[in-house]
Amino acid sequence: MSVGYQAVSWNRQKRIYDVVLAGFVASYLAIFIGAGSVVQRNATAETLLIRGFGTLSLLLLHVILCIGPLCRLNRRFLPLLYNRRHLGVTMFFFALAHGVFSIVQFHALGDLNPLVSLFVSNTRYNSVAEFPFQALGFFALVILFLMAATSHDFWLHNLSAPVWKRIHMMVYPAYGLLIAHVSLGALQSETSPWLSGLLGLGIIVVITLHVSAAMKERCLDRECTDAVADGFIEVGEVRSIPENRAKVVTLSGERVAVFRYGGKVSAISNVCRHQNGPLGEGRIIDGCITCPWHGYQYLPDSGASPPPFTEKVPTFQTKIVGTKVLVHPCAHPPGTRLEPAVL
Ligand code: HEM
Ligand code: FES
């Protein structure tokens, strides 16, 4: 929640998340470098570090890309989403370490500026087997930097949610560049077939999860069009909405969360003002609709965050006819209080 741009506060769950992440990162590097020094006897310590940092950041990137669709498919994965920003920044720092170590190892000993050498030491752009794959890694790193640098809620607030979202969607071009970086790089070095196999598996998992989540979303987006009187649309039986929970419906192309609470029914936009979290998958806690992603809260009848917070979402008129819930598809301006329908 924010007054100005105040960030979502620190809590015990975030600390546990960070400890688990730090433990995983330390164990991965210890195992990779320990096993690497036994299996690849002619690899230097620098090479093992470069490979350890590179593979670790790519693995973390796969986890980051899978978290979104996993949460769409099953709510039990939601805790993974709460601290995804720390995962992203950690991934960027290891990618940076990999890039810097590579530039020092492969480009710092000549007369040229290492960054210039990165682009001019190999210009065989028309060859697949000898493609300058390091340049692709550089461009991916620039995107990851932009994302890490703007990941704080301060930037989300100042850049506006749509611009921030656009920057963070660039993770997909970065992922594509990295697939090419690693695949083309593997053609030029003596990396193990395990790397190519695991990369292939990673791509399949990322694509399958995204397609499955998109198919689930499409079912949700099927329009409710059962218009009754006065332009109101029937969205289902009252008993189909559990107490203090919502049913999400699509009306005139917009997702609407219809909440039932204490004998009343109210409807607000399903899109949280923080990072577009699905409000309809949240619960009513202490009288407020609570976003399942990071806990922003909204009053069900007005769509406004309780004072002193300032976020507001659009609201929709509701009505009960017999055992049915009806919602008017016209959105009222964010924060407009509407009388809840009484059961
Ligand atoms: C300035 C940017 C970058 C440069 C100069 C660079 C350079 C290199 C080089 C020289 C290799 C071959 C290493 C070897 O086989 O010994 C490599 C491999 C690799 N890179 Fe990068 N890279 C950059 C960015 C990235 C980024 C951003 C990531 C991931 C987030 C990444 C992930 C990898 C991986 C997974 C490998 C394969 C590791 C292996 O060889 O076992 N790289 N990179
Ligand atoms: S609280 Fe972060 S998306 Fe809703």
Give keywords.
five-stranded antiparallel sheet, 13% strand, binds FE2/S2 (inorganic) cluster, elongated, 343 residues, disordered N terminus, 50% helix, binds protoporphyrin IX containing FE, single chain, three-stranded antiparallel sheet, alpha+beta
Description:
The chain is of the alpha+beta class. It is built from ten helices and eleven strands. The strands form three sheets. Strands 2, 3, 4, 8 and 11 form a five-stranded antiparallel beta sheet that branches. A hairpin with a 2-residue loop joins strand 3 (254-261) and strand 4. Helix 4 packs across helix 5. It is elongated. The two termini are 31 Å apart. Residues 2-6 have low confidence and may be disordered. The structure holds protoporphyrin IX containing FE (HEM) and FE2/S2 (inorganic) cluster (FES). Residues 47, 50-51, 54-55, 57-58, 61, 95, 98-99, 102-103, 106, 118, 134, 137-138, 140-141, 144, 178, 181-182, 185, 189, 191, 195 line the site of protoporphyrin IX containing FE.
What can be said about this structure in brief?
By secondary structure, this protein is an alpha+beta fold. It is 50% helix and 13% strand. It has ten helices and eleven strands.
Give me the Rg, rounded: 25 Å
The share of residues in extended strands comes to 5-15%
Q: Name the shape in a single word.
A: elongated
Specify the helix fraction band: 40-55%
Measured distance between first and last alpha carbons: 31 Å
* Secondary-structure-derived class: alpha+beta
**Largest sheet composition:** 5 strands, antiparallel
Number of helices: 10
Strand elements, count: 11
Bound molecules: protoporphyrin IX containing FE, FE2/S2 (inorganic) cluster
Residue windows where pLDDT falls under 50 for at least 5 positions? 2-6
The overall pLDDT average reads 90
Helix-strand topology string: HHHHHHHHHHEEEEEEEEEEE
